[in-house]
Amino acid sequence: MIKKYKDFDWVLFGAAVAIFIAGLLFLFSAIYSKNIDFIIRQIAWFLIGALFFMGIININYRKIISLGYVFYFFSIVLLLVVFFFGSKRLGAQRWLELGSFNFQPSEFAKLFITLALIQYLTEQKSKKGLGNIAAAFLLMILPFVLILAQPDLGTALMLVPVFLVLLYIWGARLKHLFFIMAAGLAASPLAWLMLKDYQKDRLMVFVNPNIDPLGAGYTVIQSRIAIGSGGIFGKGWLSGTQSQLNFLTERHTDFIFSVAGEEWGFAGSAILIALYYVLVRRAIEIARKTDDPCGVLVACGMATIIGIQVIVNISMTMGFMPVVGLPLPLVSYGGSSLLVTMIALGLLESVAIHR
Fold it and tell me: How many separate domains does the chain show?
């Protein structure tokens, strides 16, 4: 038994646990004056995720990837079910209710589509032409459109870097990747027409938050104030004025990094970012140590899902990127995001163990 787990990456596991514990402290500070049930639910989702994690590390990742198309079909079904039976919040229809729990199919679709792409690219390892790239693109574009229609711009856009990274690792020619990116930029005016009004407002606010300081720009302005007021060492746990006095909205979900910045300051935020760096770095190290092309794609895909989300979330809380509604992995409140991250970590450990 010990020999079986000799390649278990304890550094990756330790970084993830440390981030989650820090996230509980941020979450408690963000909501303790209202309802601590969020803490109980977050821990419950983590424990469920831990069960998935332990199950996955005992399964060879190749067997999981061999079911990629099954996961893909399941994700499409879930995304379609949302349009008929999903619950609406803040103008978006993204959630399905399961008793007292809600889950977000687009979060799982992000992972399942990645697995399907890996299965397809692994099967086509000796054929790396435009036809294969086009087929992979078609595999990605249907769920992309379904997620965008919910609307969930952030999760939909997450599929793009995952798609490009997987193609690059697979061995696609750079000129083909540049062509895809150029085509995407050329189509951006059409994408603008497809956006909802509130999404357009968020993009305009990114250019200048003061255009609508009491509306779309309010959260970004308050978030920047919170992070800036934290200084070097912060105001102290449970002592952030922007969060405790309810100036900062969505502080337990998409903008929880603002709570960390205000209460823990630059030093605490830097430690959190360093932990994320260690986590992603270990994922890349797992990819480097395996000779199996499938294992490399899995490790790089999971590293991209986690790493891009961290970059986008932290950047949007500081006004460096538009607000697109992406949670901070292992920190933001949300069972779907937490469970998907735990599954991704399980896949990384499976590659480390079974490579």
Answer: 1
